[in-house]
Specification:
Elements (H helix, E strand, L loop, with lengths): L1 H19 L4 H13 L20 E4 L2 E6 L6 E3 L12 E3 L5 E4 L13 E3 L4 E5 L12 E3 L4 E4 L13 E3 L4 E2 L21 E3 L6 E3 L13 E3 L4 E3 L14 E3 L6 E3 L12 E3 L4 E3 L13 E3 L8 E2 L12 E3 L5 E3 L13 E3 L4 E6 L11 E3 L4 E5 L8 E3 L42 E2 L5 E2 L2 E7 L10 H17 L4 E11 L5 E9 L7 H12 L12 E5 L13 H14 L1 H29 L21 E2 L2 H7 L8 E4 L3 E7 L5 E7 L7 H11 L10 E7 L2 E7 L6 H6 L8 H21 L4 E2 L8 E3 L5 E3 L6 E2 L8 E2 L11 H6 L1 E2 L1 H17 L4 E2 L2 E2 H8 L15 H4 L4 H14 L10 H14 L47
């Protein structure tokens, strides 16, 4: 009987506590469901009263949840329909949580009060749901840098209050939707100021009705898509435009004459299209800072007068545009002019920069023109390149007759009149010389007005603007550091940003999320000249010591004890013990999932615990399910490392799952290396690591599925895909760009160490992707120039200088790439029947004869179809790459430029990706192994190499 009284008292007390909770029951249920779905939620997400208990990242008005801002706190999981229970939600910012994956809920209508939906830099996939058009109050919609596919929902046209629409850097296809009377379209968004659609797969024409005199658009970013047709003349009606990027598409026809009416445009990029007709007159764009019309097919024309009439011009890029004549001296005196690039044209006469040239001028690049004289003035500090002009034809050794660009001085925010400290592990000394754990990432500016990055005053201006914004918003920021300005392949400016906390060494989760929100929702407005930007954050793992609160449970126990006496207390303690047992078990599982390397043994030859950036952790059960329990039907190859299985993730993505031999930890160091390096490299010519698994004695790597095997298999005929000369050039250029990215843009730079045809994979459109990073080495000290390490690699591709000195450099990759080029033209393995391809080509080459007299070595498939000059330049480049001395080999940046030139000589546009799939090149398939099943990932060491290599 007594226990029944105690039970009734307990139930009554629980009811009292529920009534006393502040959070609306529907909101509370939704948040608790989300908490159960996500890993790594803030520690104080406990109890039923999220509003009353002040859950981190949650803002309430009275009892309703109105804001969730959880940027950059390492959340993982998915966004389920539970979010729809938060009907009063106004702001949802989950940006920079790369392990938030899966599709968005198909029905979003219930979030009728949402004004900001910020999901920047996550891992969401699938189509953007059409129901997003029901969010009538939406002002900011940022879905960029995810994995979304499918069409742009026309229903977005219903979002009449939308100011910011960013869907860039996804895999979105289809046409740009416009209204037709019965269906909505983006032309209805007359108040929207930002269309950021770059780096997708959009096709079709740019709809003329997208633009009008009523439009408020200031940023139109459509770069690097698959758009065709002509530039609509209606574009000139949108006179509010400031940045226009239509580059890297397949646009044709003439540039509309009325484009000159866009008097507010500051950045205009139309390069790498198929534009024809007369060169446009841009004299009406009086505030134009940067213009790039390169690589189009305009009519031949004399240098136009408007070159010298733009008072604000900073950057002029007009490569391969058929302009001719002598550059007027007046052009060099434009006050803000920094860069002029007119490569591959017919500029002639004398280059005379005069004595009143701009103090900002940094670069004049006139390669491959007809300049026959240069008026040299003593003391000039401008980088001038005249290689390929008559003035350099007679073996001139002047600095302006080389292609070597003077490197920009490295930049980093200077300290504020103090000496930096030597900080403890993982801490960094701030500009105010305080050791702390900064929040870091990359700021990427999509339309910078300047081309050279050596002007420190620009970064000082950016620093001041950042500090002003953080201070105005009351954010806990002591200082920021900007460093390593870099131009990306997409002509973006990328800067490393470090934000340091005030009054402590760490940020808490609230501070991180508030800073992330200021960057994701564009609270920070960059200074003039930098253009639109986005931010990609690194994982932050140094949160200030927050512990899960237990004051509520303690208070409840005290209340219960006081109310019902000792027997109830005993009963509650019993319940608490049972609850704690299950919570501990749950916590252990969650901890194990959030720390997949908890059982990693750093005392073995596998090294310390891997540091992963962005790769998804899969449980072993998840991978069993997606590969149908590793069934034989999904077995697509076997190698020394183990087996490879085709898998399908829940959202439909095809993957290749590489599984090590059961119970073997062989190659632990290579396993760690590959997931560490691949998790932080992202480039269209580098194979993507989707995730990994490390549990139950298993090592599994999950890659994007590459459908057309390796280059080696295509060259051997195993795939049945016929590689003509055009396709081989594109593959060589793609592989070179991937390798250049690893050397120049990865942070830190990466030496691949095993470049070979088996590690160049070909996707469904025959684009090359560099793969297999098991032997790669990061350049932790780039200034040193090499890494001293045990020799590993593949016979035939191995750099002899590295083999002799055990000093690995980026030029070791260049050597291997040179061998790869020779393999492309001969279709022979590097060492075949005791003959080394490098020696064979060197000995057989005769520059006095057609095609260097190499007919007997060439692959018969291409021997009769390739232009002789194209082949000769290709072979010259390959032999420069395999020079015995590393210092004499070109860097990969120069290799890429030379490959682009070879393609141009062959009549190809190097900046247009393959437009045909492998089906255009298929022959009779003879069966082949999958690309991931190549030789053992971990077997390329020097342990069994011969004592002497003979590369000559």
């Amino acid at each position: 009987m007594m226990w029944r009284i105690h039970l009734h008292l307990l139930v009554a007390l629980v009811q009292v506590l529920r009534i006393g909770a502040l959070t609306n029951p529907d909101d509370s249920a939704a948040l608790n469901a989300l908490r159960d779905q996500w890993n790594n939620v803030p520690p104080n997400w406990s109890g039923a009263d999220s509003c009353g208990d002040g859950w981190e990242g949650i803002t309430c008005t009275e009892d309703r949840v109105v804001s969730i801002t959880l940027a950059s706190i390492n959340l993982s999981g998915g966004l389920t329909s539970d979010i729809l229970g938060l009907s009063e939600l106004q702001i949802l910012d989950l940006s920079y949580n790369k392990e938030l994956t899966g599709p968005l809920p198909s029905s979003l209508e219930n979030l009728k009060n949402l004004t900001s939906l910020m999901l920047v830099g996550c891992g969401f996939s699938g189509p953007i749901p059409p129901s997003i058009g029901s969010l009538q109050k939406l002002v900011y919609l940022s879905l960029n840098s995810n994995n979304f596919i499918g069409d742009i929902p026309p229903t977005i046209g219903y979002l009449s209050r939308l100011l910011w629409l960013d869907i860039a850097d996804n895999m979105i296809t289809g046409t740009i939707p416009v209204s037709n009377g019965s269906t909505p379209g983006l032309d209805m968004l007359v108040h929207t100021k930002h269309f950021h659609f770059g780096n997708n797969k959009l096709s079709g024409e740019i709809p003329p009705q997208l633009f009008s005199s009523n439009s408020s658009l200031i940023h139109l970013l459509l770069e690097n898509n698959r758009l065709t047709g002509s530039i609509p003349s209606t574009l000139a009606l949108t006179t509010s435009l400031e940045v226009v990027r239509l580059d890297r598409n397949s646009l044709g026809g003439s540039v509309p004459d009325n484009l000159n009416n866009l008097a507010n445009v500051q950045t205009l990029f139309l390069s790498n299209n198929q534009l024809t007709g007369p060169l446009p007159d841009l004299s009406g764009m009086v505030v134009l800072n940067a213009v790039d019309l390169s690589n189009n097919s305009f009519d031949a024309t004399d240098i136009p007068p408007w070159f010298s009439s733009l008072p604000s011009l900073m950057t002029l890029i007009m490569d391969n545009t058929r302009i001719q004549g002598q550059i007027p001296i007046s052009m060099f005196s434009i006050p803000q002019l920094q860069t002029i690039s007119l490569k591959n044209n017919r500029v002639n006469g004398t280059l005379n920069i005069g004595s009143n040239y701009s103090s900002q001028l940094q670069l004049i690049d006139l390669r491959n023109n007809f300049v026959d004289a240069f008026t040299l003035r003593p003391g000039y500090s401008i980088q001038i390149i005249l290689l390929g002009n008559p003035v350099c034809d007679e073996g001139g050794t002047e600095t302006y007759c080389t292609t070597t660009r003077q490197p920009s001085a490295p930049y980093s925010t200077p300290t504020e009149n103090c000496l930096p400290y030597s900080c403890s592990w993982a801490q960094i000394s701030s500009p105010k010389c305080k050791c702390a754990y900064p929040y870091s990432g990359e700021m990427v500016f999509r339309g910078p007005s300047f081309y050279g990055f050596g002007n420190t005053s620009l970064y000082e201006l950016l620093y001041k603007k950042l500090m002003l914004t953080f201070g105005t918003e009351g954010l806990p920021v002591d200082s920021v550091s900007l460093s390593n300005p870099t131009k990306t392949i997409d002509d973006y400016l990328m800067l490393n940003l470090q934000v340091f906390p005030s009054n402590q060494e760490y940020f808490n989760r609230t501070g991180i999320s508030r800073i992330g929100f200021a960057l994701s929702n564009q609270t920070f407005k960059p200074p003039h000249g930098f253009g639109p930007f986005y931010f990609t954050a690194n994982k932050y793992e140094y949160f200030a010591g927050l512990t899960t609160g237990s004051h509520n449970s303690s208070s409840n126990i005290i209340i219960i004890a006081a109310a019902v006496g000792g027997s109830v207390l005993f009963f509650l303690l019993l319940l608490a013990g049972i609850y704690a047992f299950f919570q501990k078990s749950r916590a252990e599982k969650a901890a194990k999932k959030s720390d997949p390397f908890a059982s990693w043994d750093p005392n073995t030859d596998s090294g310390g615990v891997p540091q992963i950036k962005g790769a998804k952790y899969f449980s072993f059960e998840e991978l069993k399910k997606c590969t149908n329990n590793f069934s034989e039907t999904n077995d697509i190859g076997t190698g020394g490392y183990g087996k490879v299985y085709r898998g399908t993730l829940p959202h439909g993505q095809l993957v290749a799952v590489k599984r090590a031999r059961q119970g073997s930890m062989q190659g632990g160091l290579e396993f760690k290396t590959e997931i560490e390096l691949l998790s932080r490299v992202h480039h269209k010519n580098v194979v993507s690591l989707v995730g990994f698994c490390f549990e139950q004695g298993e090592q599994l790597l999950v890659y994007e599925y590459i459908s057309n095997g390796s280059l080696k298999e295509s060259l051997s005929g195993k795939t049945g895909i016929r590689l003509d000369w055009m396709r081989r050039l594109r593959i060589a250029l793609g592989a070179a760009r991937g390798l250049q990215y690893l050397h120049d843009l990865a942070n830190p730079p990466i030496i691949h160490r095993d470049i070979k045809s088996n590690n160049i994979l070909l996707d469904e459109r025959m684009n090359a992707k560099v793969a297999d990073f098991g032997l790669s080495k990061p350049m932790s000290d780039p200034e040193k120039g090499h890494v001293s390490t045990q020799v590993k690699g593949t016979m035939g591709y191995l750099d002899p200088e590295y083999y002799m000195t055990q000093q690995l450099t980026e030029k070791s990759d260049v050597y291997s790439f040179g061998v790869l080029l020779l393999e492309l033209v001969t279709a022979r393995t590097p060492i075949e029947k005791g003959k080394y391809i490098v020696r064979e080509v060197k000995q057989g080459k005769d520059k006095t004869k057609d095609m260097y007299n190499l007919h007997g070595l060439l692959d018969p498939i291409i021997a009769l179809s390739m232009p002789p000059r194209s082949l000769e330049m290709f072979v010259d480049l390959a032999l420069r790459c395999v020079h015995e001395a590393g210092d004499s080999r070109p860097p990969m940046s120069e290799v890429v430029k030379e490959m682009e030139h070879v393609m141009e000589i062959s009549g190809l546009n190097p900046n247009i990706e393959s437009t045909s799939s492998s089906t255009s090149y298929e022959g009779t398939s003879r069966g082949y192994d999958h690309p991931y099943s190549n030789e053992s990932l971990f077997s390329f060491s020097a342990g069994n190499l011969p004592s002497k290599l003979e590369p000559k």
